[in-house]
Specification:
The protein has 254 residues and is an alpha+beta fold. It has ten helices and seven strands. The protein has helices at residues 33-43, 106-113, 133-142, 150-154, 156-159, 171-182, 195-201, 213-217, 224-241, 243-253, and strands at 4-14, 17-27, 63-66, 69-72, 87-90, 97-99, 102-103. A five-stranded mixed β-sheet has the order 2-1-5-3-4. It is elongated and about 70 Å long. It binds iron/sulfur cluster, FE3-S4 cluster (F3S) and FE2/S2 (inorganic) cluster (FES). FE2/S2 (inorganic) cluster binds at residues 52-55, 57-62, 72, 74. This is Succinate dehydrogenase/fumarate reductase iron-sulfur subunit. Keywords: 2Fe-2S, 4Fe-4S, Iron, Iron-sulfur, Metal-binding, Oxidoreductase.
Length: 254
């Protein structure tokens, strides 16, 4: 394989502002964008800030935008770009910049904390849980999430709408609610915790108009929209308009 020199355009700056800067960096066969960023850091821009850990698509740290598309830097092969193409690397747009390619993703941790965890079934001890394989399989897909927050960064509800962040948990955390709500052993409801109406009323499920942009950028290929958000919407709506459920809720609330 032969090495070549690529033109990289990288955003440099901090919370007060910044700019795109051009660099020419050497590329070797088989390398990914993160390799080039590391070479740039080692040879020309020692103070370039970049977050990464595993270089294997598993830690979810190296999220950025490459030519405007949200992606993992460690999973984006240089071979997808033409050698004479400028490769532009910018920080995730929906989150505040800390420095260079590093953003403050604490929005996501705040949302995560707002979702009550799994409520164990009363009277059953660990080791006594029994589930059908079908139910196990369903939530297994959601548990592949590496928390890269690319879906959170991409969803148009918050991408350019800071004002929606308060009321919208984003696809990753609506998926978390869906996962718990589908869980046959989750006993939230028995303990008075209605995950479906919380999804609607506290976490902004209604803001999602199923554009599927979240699903398109997920590096784990989780079918966020089809398998989590749409079923959650259906279950939430069913309840709202099912007269028996409605009456049941009314009586229970008294
Ligand atoms: Fe990343 Fe996919 Fe998890 Fe969203 S659902 S945080 S895109 S792994
Ligand atoms: Fe946003 Fe995904 Fe819904 S991109 S609008 S959460 S389908
Ligand atoms: Fe871990 Fe890219 S460095 S996902």
């Amino acid at each position: 394989g032969s090495a070549y020199t690529a033109r990289f355009r990288v955003w440099r700056g901090d919370a007060d502002g910044g700019e795109l800067r051009d660099f020419d960096v050497e590329v070797h066969e088989g390398e990914v964008v993160l390799d080039i960023i590391h070479r740039l850091q080692a040879t020309q821009a020692n103070d370039l800030a970049v977050r990464w850990n595993c270089k294997a698509g598993k830690c979810g740290s190296c999220s950025a935008e490459i030519n405007g598309r949200p992606r993992l830097m460690c999973m984006t092969r240089m071979s997808v770009f033409a050698p004479d193409e400028t490769v532009t690397v910018t920080p995730m747009r929906a989150f505040p910049v800390v420095r260079d390619l590093v953003t403050d993703v604490s929005f996501n941790y705040t949302k995560a904390r707002e979702i009550p965890s799994f409520v164990p079934p009363p009277g059953l001890r660990a080791g006594e849980y029994r589930m059908r394989q079908e139910d196990v399989g369903r939530s297994q897909e959601f548990r592949k999430c590496i928390e890269c927050f690319l879906c959170q960064n991409t969803c148009h509800v918050v991408r350019d709408h800071e004002e929606n962040k308060q009321a919208f948990a984003g696809p990753r955390f609506l998926m978390r609610i869906a996962e718990l709500d589908m869980h046959p052993l989750d006993s939230a409801e028995e303990s008075g915790l209605d995950r479906k109406s919380a999804a609607q009323e506290e976490h902004g499920l209604g803001y999602c108009n199923i554009t599927k942009c979240c699903t398109e950028v997920c590096p784990e290929n989780i079918k966020i929209t089809d398998n989590a958000l749409i079923p959650l919407k259906e279950r939430a709506v069913d309840r709202k308009y099912d007269p028996l459920v409605w009456l049941g809720n009314k009586i229970r609330r008294r």
